[in-house]
Amino acid sequence: xxxxxxxxxxxxxxxxxxxxxxxxxIGISDYAQTSLGDVVYVExxxxxxxxxxxxxxxxxxxxxxxxxxxxxxxxxxIAVNELLRERPELINELPQETWIFKVKVMDVGLIEALMSQxxxxxFVEKE
Length: 127
Description:
9 strands
């Protein structure tokens, strides 16, 4: 389970949790998976890909729609959750514990600028 004090959220409904050093796990929020419905496919980013903050880096498809996945901070993809290829529904079952990919973050200080869990919950109430 992720440490709720370390988890941060983007306005595009991704969460990020700094693990050790400059490595962070990224997934989608409970709000996002609820909005999507039953997830049936996850397009994972390629290992070694480098993305700028806010750049589209994958897709999450559900029975209702497809939604782009955006990276909350700039970084290089160093791991992808291969289990999601066979079991994409894990995102519905444990959205804030199921990471989609991990990145080597270029500037860890930028993570602090993202929303805390309380700020994110306020943000989604307004949507």
